[in-house]
Specification:
- There is one protein chain.
- With 203 residues, this protein is mainly alpha-helical.
- The chain starts with 6 loop residues before the first helix and ends in an 8-residue tail after the last helix.
- It is built from 9 helices and no strands.
Amino acid sequence: MARPSKAPERRAELIEVARQAVLDRGVLNLRLRDIAEGAGLSSGSVLYYFPTLTDLLQEVQREAVARFCSARELAAGAKPSPAGRLLAMIRSGLPTGPTDELCVLLYELGTIARRDPVYAARHITLYEQQVRIYTGILEAGAATGEFTLTADAVSIARNLVALEDGYGLHLTQAVPTLETATAEAMLLSYARTATSNPLEDRS
């Protein structure tokens, strides 16, 4: 009887090692040897599971995007009203600071999207998924009369995601230029104006 393949476990281990290496060293300073040493393997052994470092980092990016979007959907879905869901979305999208593991990971991997179409496609998917979640919340609020939108739902959703991305970059710098609470307040200010709703926290 053939032994079960350990390839899935080994691939998962390498993805985890690569994830931590990106956080520790940054994408621009990362080498295949760093992954190999972290996993206790030779560089050739790493390439047995992932043909190139780019292939491995694509898996790190795929996992990070899925985890980030899933967490946001869960946070919003836990609230019964559109206003509550909108508040939860806004609060789940901003990094807590330079040590926010998932957001820092996404920003680091996002730098490759400037040069690599595959990374760019997944980064676009991340953006579109967030816009979709926001759009659904805004449309639900408008349908129930809870929101009176000042523009179409998609445009508001795109602005919210763009604001999150912009503030997030400032929050994850080595020396942040503002605090998460300040960024959240500015996002909420725009959202209140765009929905004509005070968005009070009643949870």
